[in-house]
Amino acid sequence: MTATAPRIDSVFDLDALLTEEEREWQQRARAIAQEQIAPIIEDDFEHKHFRRELIKVLGDAGLLGMHLQGYGCAGAGAVAYGLVCLELEAADSGWRTFVSVQGSLAMSAIHKYGSEEQKQRWLPGMAAGDLVGCFALTEPQGGSDPAAMTTTARREGDEWVIDGAKRWIGLASLADVAVVWARVDDPSGAFGEGAAAVRGFLVPTSTAGFTATPIDGKLSMRASVQCDVDLDGVRVPADALLPGAAGLSGPFGCLNEARYGIVWGAMGAARSCLESALERSITREVFGKPIGANQLTQAKLADMFVEVEKGVLLALHLGRLKERGALTPAQISVGKLNSVREALEIAHQARSILAGDGITNAFPVMRHAANLESVRTYEGTDEIHQLVIGRALTGIAAF
């Protein structure tokens, strides 16, 4: 499919808007995606296989927690990180998801809210790909309402005891450490939120009572790992508490980092679908001519291309805002809602151009479409982001 990329790029020169360093990060990620992920991803998707050995490859390339400063992290800019997400998701959403869970969720939580001792203990190994983290927020009954959290942590002497259940926790069965969010019994108001403050805890996954079970039967994200997590009397020392996170603003601060990466990543999946459709339109002949010579096919290709370029330009704008410290949650919601919604429509249009062959794994389109259904749901559904934007427009919360 790479032969079609210059054709797309030549119509709209996005490289002119990037710095040399940003282009270098993009090319580094593209090389890994095309040389080490793309050749094996269809087989991995078919057999529900997560290739753990690639974690170290991503770590050696500096892609894990790359937007964070210090502790072995690269300290790259927001746009560079976004471009990496785009290239990885062009190969498969599961690998962009891995980078998001590791870097934007688990590592960001430790980097934003952890003590210096916690940062030194975990972040260098996670940046190198030697350690894996997960982010245990979502619960079986909670879904889009983390305020309904039922997982609890209670203080017993010099320990915290955590009980509860989490669901759809990426990497949990592979992780070395879990960032677990729980309600803390706080009748004194010591944490500033009354009787039920939400706090984060760093839980080594080898701790007794922590059980992660991969979720089977998935028809999406099959080359990735998501788990049910049971927390049955999990005991951690007092210093497992993340000191800088109090209330739901803690996990939300990390979710916004991950949502930002999705804005870029979904456009990578969309680009891959467009490239597949474009190549097919040139090489497949029907009624004595390439199907790309038909007006209706060209109209579909043009519409798909316009939405990819609009989506990347929006992502770039949000990235520049983020680098200035001016990016708002509502702006992230605009990007996440638009990118994933348009990427799915592009996948559907690409499948129509590929015709019957489009439902086979000879092309990546159906895999991308299936994965994007998950991306559409996690880190905020379409409806949640519509309500975030609606609140910004009207000043009225309709949640």
Automatic annotation (TrEMBL):
Catalytic reaction list: glutaryl-CoA + oxidized [electron-transfer flavoprotein] + 2 H(+) = (2E)-butenoyl-CoA + reduced [electron-transfer flavoprotein] + CO2
Acyl-CoA dehydrogenase/oxidase C-terminal domain boundaries: 253-393
Keyword Flavoprotein (UniProt): yes
InterPro entries (UniProt xref): Acyl-CoA_DH_CS, Acyl-CoA_Oxase/DH_mid-dom, Acyl-CoA_Oxase/DH_mid-dom_sf, AcylCo_DH-like_C, AcylCo_DH/oxidase_C, AcylCoA_DH/ox_N, AcylCoA_DH/ox_N_sf, AcylCoA_DH/oxidase_NM_dom_sf
Ranges of residues in domain Acyl-CoA dehydrogenase/oxidase N-terminal: 19-130
Keywords attached to this entry: FAD, Flavoprotein, Oxidoreductase, Transit peptide
Domain Acyl-CoA oxidase/dehydrogenase middle: 134-234
GO biological process: fatty acid beta-oxidation using acyl-CoA dehydrogenase; fatty-acyl-CoA biosynthetic process
Gene3D superfamilies: Acyl-CoA dehydrogenase/oxidase, N-terminal domain, Butyryl-CoA Dehydrogenase, subunit A, domain 2, Butyryl-CoA Dehydrogenase, subunit A, domain 3
PANTHER family named in the record: GLUTARYL-COA DEHYDROGENASE, MITOCHONDRIAL
Name used for this protein in its record: glutaryl-CoA dehydrogenase (ETF)
Species per Swiss-Prot/TrEMBL record: Agromyces aureus
